[in-house]
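Please fill in the sequence for the structure shown.

STRUCTURE ENCODING:
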């Protein structure tokens, strides 16, 4: 293998650049050139690439200085997109043709559920070696404890909610803070624990609008009854009732016995997706990036490198915290994480259930 392609796809996540840097460094050390497809699968189909390596006069390969410098930056220097064209067989055939034309013998895809689904289908159809790296702040990807960006997103949420808590305590207010995560409540749950929030509202609880209002009212009433100055409720994006509506309806419901209750709504939105990657995201990106190149060179394909503190189950790589899983298994587990049938989701919900009474104290 002499030339590799890499792309970042779907919602960007902090750590993608660190993964690009690691991939490029390891590949360069083995004498391989790396080409980043611009704007994810779009660039792969259009044949628009940026070389991430640099070939020196003596023929040795090194890392482009900008790629080296970008490791600590959020976003992705090669751009990302959610490609509709790549969902069609015609688009994938075009991508295959471009890879052959440019002499690219392997592909690394960094992204979430949709991107890894594309990687799986493409590797089957093209016969080219493809390895995935989980990258999504949502932490909804199966077979990996963490995806790139999750830790940074959690740090951002915690910092934002610390700021909100200061002003909440000053005014003795209740806040509902909505965090991203698409259909997965992980960011909401994990940040709620770290912030000792009073409650968490996630799609997986399956609550109706009436239940949400009743729960929120009761959490706020109990909080004030205990003399709290800050009442913080973390709401996951996946809960369909918009934050402002929930707050307005809850204030109305509480009007009779708490006429002066003030609840504020804050939607953190894309703030959560940006920012320089944390130590943990950089470290995971580095180790997954190395393992992805290593896996390609050892002849693996249609698989994802996963971040897992040493456990049994996957095929070991040279890094004890990185295991390789077939993309088929990853995608099945991802579907189960999202539809709630995965033991991972059940465990998260059970833990949250246990914590809920305690958090409200
Ligand atoms: O999947 C990452 C994510 O940030 C989700 O949490 C969110 O639902 C979605 O992407 C937002 O997508 P967009 O940037 O296209 O609005």
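FILLED IN BY: designer on duty
SEQUENCE:
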């Amino acid at each position: 293998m002499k030339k590799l392609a890499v792309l970042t796809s779907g919602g960007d996540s902090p750590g993608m650049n660190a993964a690009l840097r690691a991939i490029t460094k390891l590949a360069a050390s083995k004498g391989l050139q790396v080409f980043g497809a611009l704007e994810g699968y779009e660039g792969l189909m259009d044949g628009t690439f940026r070389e991430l390596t640099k070939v020196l006069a003596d023929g040795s390969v090194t890392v482009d200085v900008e790629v080296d410098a970008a490791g600590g930056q959020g976003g992705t220097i090669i751009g990302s997109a959610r490609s509709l064209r790549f969902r069609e067989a015609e688009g994938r055939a075009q991508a295959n043709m471009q890879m052959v034309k440019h002499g690219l013998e392997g592909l690394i895809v960094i992204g979430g559920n949709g991107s890894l689904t594309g990687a799986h289908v493409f590797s089957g159809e093209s016969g080219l070696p493809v390895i995935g790296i989980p990258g999504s702040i949502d932490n909804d990807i199966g077979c990996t404890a963490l995806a790139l960006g999750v830790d940074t997103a959690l740090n951002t949420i915690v910092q934002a909610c610390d700021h909100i808590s200061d002003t909440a305590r000053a005014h003795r207010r209740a806040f509902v803070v909505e965090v991203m995560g698409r259909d997965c409540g992980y960011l909401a749950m994990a940040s709620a624990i770290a912030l000792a929030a009073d409650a968490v509202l996630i799609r997986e609880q399956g609550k109706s609008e009436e239940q949400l209002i009743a729960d929120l009212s009761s959490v706020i009433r109990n909080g004030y009854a205990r003399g709290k100055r800050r009442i913080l409720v973390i709401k996951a994006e996946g809960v369909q009732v918009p934050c402002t509506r929930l707050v307005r309806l809850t204030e109305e419901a509480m009007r009779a016995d708490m006429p002066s209750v003030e609840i504020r709504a804050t939607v953190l939105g894309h703030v959560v997706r940006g920012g320089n990657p944390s130590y943990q995201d950089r470290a995971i990106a580095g180790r997954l990036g190395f393992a992805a190149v290593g896996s390609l060179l050892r002849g693996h394909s249609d698989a994802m490198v996963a971040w897992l503190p040493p456990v049994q189950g996957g095929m070991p790589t040279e890094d004890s915290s990185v295991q390789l899983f077939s993309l088929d298994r990853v995608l099945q587990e991802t579907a189960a994480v999202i539809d709630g049938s995965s033991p991972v989701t059940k465990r998260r919900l059970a833990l949250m259930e246990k914590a809920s009474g305690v958090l409200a104290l």
